[in-house]
């Protein structure tokens, strides 16, 4: 029981700590409102499920053992994050675009961006492989335990993300004023580029 409580507390601490997910969700909610923020959150959570399955069935272990595989995924994720960051930093509002077309584009890209960003981040795979095993009971079904912990992590993450989006949306009117939005776009861009560079220089251990 103590292990379960400790797992839940540490998981919440990790989820609520500012990071790539927070930056992506903040930017998407500011740009698209609650709908975009929720879709980004669902994409990120789906990425966590992918890593849960990978860790459970040994793919993540294989990734960590193979320096080449790690490097390929690492650089792909780093490039994608820097692409998102540069896009945010250089973003300019185009008021001539069709509202219907713009909204459709946002709806189709929010979930995908969250999913791709999470899946291509080997740091998430490392986290699942190093964090979850600490709470495994060796005398019980290891595969089932990993699945349950991964699903629990995803549920807690999506809950926190939705609450975060809900409150961010209240501040959206102020956050989306031209001056504030320009500042936030550039700040978010710098954060994402920074995470991308950090990921690119992460050494395989």
Q: Which regions are unreliable across 5 or more consecutive residues at pLDDT < 50?
A: 94-107
Order of helices and strands: HHHHHHHHHH
Quaternary structure annotation: single chain
Q: Largest beta sheet, briefly? A: none
Label this structure with key terms.
mainly alpha; 205 residues; 82% helix
Task: Give an account of the 3D structure.
By secondary structure, this protein is mainly alpha-helical. The chain has ten helices and no strands. It has helices at 2-16, 20-32, 34-56, 59-65, 67-89, 99-119, 122-131, 142-170, 172-175, 178-200. The longest helix is centred in the C-terminal third of the chain and has 29 residues, at 142-170. The protein is globular, with a radius of gyration of 18 Å.
Question: What's this model, at a glance?
Answer:
Helix content is 82%, strand content 0%. The protein is mainly α and 205 residues long.
Please render the helix and strand layout as text.
Elements: H1 2-16, H2 20-32, H3 34-56, H4 59-65, H5 67-89, H6 99-119, H7 122-131, H8 142-170, H9 172-175, H10 178-200
Helix pairs in contact: 1-8, 2-3, 2-6, 2-8, 2-10, 3-6, 3-7, 3-8, 4-5, 5-10
């Amino acid at each position: 029981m103590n292990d379960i409580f400790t797992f839940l507390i540490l998981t919440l601490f990790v989820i609520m700590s500012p990071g790539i997910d927070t930056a992506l969700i903040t930017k998407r909610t500011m740009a698209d409102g609650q709908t975009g923020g929720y879709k980004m959150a669902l994409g990120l959570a789906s990425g966590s499920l992918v890593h849960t399955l990978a860790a459970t069935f040994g793919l993540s272990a294989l990734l960590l053992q193979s320096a080449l595989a790690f490097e390929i995924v690492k650089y792909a994720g780093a490039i994608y994050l820097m692409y998102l960051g540069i896009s945010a930093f250089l973003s300019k509002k185009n008021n001539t675009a069709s509202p219907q077309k713009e909204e459709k584009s946002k709806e189709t890209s929010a979930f995908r961006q969250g999913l791709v960003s999470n899946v291509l981040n080997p740091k998430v795979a490392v986290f699942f492989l190093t964090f979850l095993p600490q709470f495994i009971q060796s005398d019980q079904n290891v595969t089932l335990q990993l699945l349950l912990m991964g699903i629990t992590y995803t549920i807690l993450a999506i809950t926190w993300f939705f609450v975060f989006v809900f409150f961010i949306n209240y501040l959206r009117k102020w956050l989306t004023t031209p001056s504030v939005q320009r500042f936030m776009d550039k700040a978010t861009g710098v954060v994402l580029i920074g995470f991308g560079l950090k990921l690119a220089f992460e050494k395989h251990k």
